[in-house]
From TrEMBL:
Superkingdom as given in the UniProt entry: Bacteria
Organism: Dactylosporangium matsuzakiense
Signal peptide limits: none
Start and end residues of each MEDS domain: 15-177
Protein name: MEDS domain-containing protein
Highest classification ranks of the organism: Bacteria, Bacillati, Actinomycetota, Actinomycetes, Micromonosporales
Amino acid sequence: MGQPTQVGDIQAGGHACLTFSDPDERLDLLAVFVAAGLDEGQRVLCFTDAVAPDALTDELGQRGIEAADAVGRGQLRITDCASAWLGADIGTAQHMSEVLRVQLRAAADDGYAGLRVSADMSWAVRPHTAAHELLRFERDVADGYRDGVTDGRLTTLCEYDRGSFDPVTLAFAADVHSQAVAAQVYHEDPLLRICRQYRPAGIRAAGELDSGHLEQLHTALAETLRLDEHPHVNLRRVRYLDAACAAAIIQAAHELPAARTMHVSCGTLPATVLRLAGAVDVSGLRVRVTP
């Protein structure tokens, strides 16, 4: 597998792997994958484990996808891994692969151009789970792609939490998939990560945002101002925000034309710093305190 690709660049028939550390970032990338499938007239099937089906429907809705409507018309199906995919108490690769084959045929019978499947692999780290079946399943899917069995009609995104899986399994996952998916990263170190956010479009930061990272913050802000009509700055996982970085965000919002707005979501402490730095004086800046 080569260099990581943007999730929007996954082509029909791809077998992609998403490894993540931030659950919000995972949901953001998943939303892009789901939206692309809906827009392209495919059926989208989400097997979820860490997030309940109803909660995942809500999370997709918060990211601008009319998920409830898509579920209602049958184009989007969101279901938990245990009941709909693994089948028995301990899933087998053969059973899971057969489920995908059945769903692929059903999508074709219902007139869809293809089937997009996202699979939360967290089930494999549960106690008493036959985790080796995960490896067999991934090989079965990869072999199906290589042999042309799916004929380009099945597109899969397999999601692995770096905090749950051991390095050996993660290395296997990287090797068996044809593509790796990752967000565009502006900066990452043990204390701070700044990356692109795709839905809603903007940037996302997590950790401690201080003047030592002002250059990277400026780069990220400049790009979202250039690309996004109404930039979203997600600071929900920022533990510390200093005055210099708050001023940079406020200045970026001030530079927007009158018809555009910047939306910042953050916790109480960053919101206080932004307020003290003058956020309330910028008409095009909206600060929302979120959990």
